[in-house]
């Protein structure tokens, strides 16, 4: 009889302790979920093919050169890719420049850029 009573009490306590604890935990998880940005990992290959697609989009007349009038004005960083400063970006200037950017972001040089590394690179740029 006694034994069963104690067991019931322990069970009751465990449930009571568990209840609010779980609630707190799920609230914290909700907060985390709200602030959460999905982690992304971009491989060098993916980045390169995304860059190639971007080049194709920008090169409207398809002559493998982004000429001055094809250059989006909003993206001044694109001009940094013009290595020989002739005002145009060739396909190799574009892809090599983009991959150099990727390598600069890939802090641990494992061939992938995580969202963490991207954040760090962005923060470094602002300084
Ligand atoms: Ca063109
Ligand atoms: Ca050029
Ligand atoms: Ca990396």
From TrEMBL:
<dbReference type="InterPro" id="IPR018247">
    <property type="entry name" value="EF_Hand_1_Ca_BS"/>
</dbReference>
<protein>
    <recommendedName>
        <fullName>EF-hand domain-containing protein</fullName>
    </recommendedName>
</protein>
<dbReference type="Pfam" id="PF13202">
    <property type="entry name" value="EF-hand_5"/>
</dbReference>
<dbReference type="InterPro" id="IPR011992">
    <property type="entry name" value="EF-hand-dom_pair"/>
</dbReference>
<dbReference type="InterPro" id="IPR002048">
    <property type="entry name" value="EF_hand_dom"/>
</dbReference>
<feature type="domain" description="EF-hand">
    <location>
        <begin position="69"/>
        <end position="104"/>
    </location>
</feature>
């Amino acid at each position: 009889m006694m034994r069963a009573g104690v067991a019931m009490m322990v069970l009751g306590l465990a449930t009571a302790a568990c209840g609010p604890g779980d609630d707190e935990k799920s609230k914290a998880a909700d907060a985390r979920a709200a602030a959460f940005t999905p982690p992304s990992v971009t491989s060098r290959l993916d980045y390169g093919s995304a860059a190639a697609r971007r080049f194709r989009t920008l090169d409207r007349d398809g002559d493998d050169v982004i000429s001055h009038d094809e250059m989006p004005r909003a993206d001044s960083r694109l001009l940094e890719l013009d290595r020989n400063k002739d005002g145009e970006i060739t396909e190799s200037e574009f892809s090599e420049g983009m991959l150099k950017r990727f390598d600069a972001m890939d802090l641990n040089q494992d061939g992938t850029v995580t969202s963490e590394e991207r954040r760090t690179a962005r923060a470094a740029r602002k300084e």
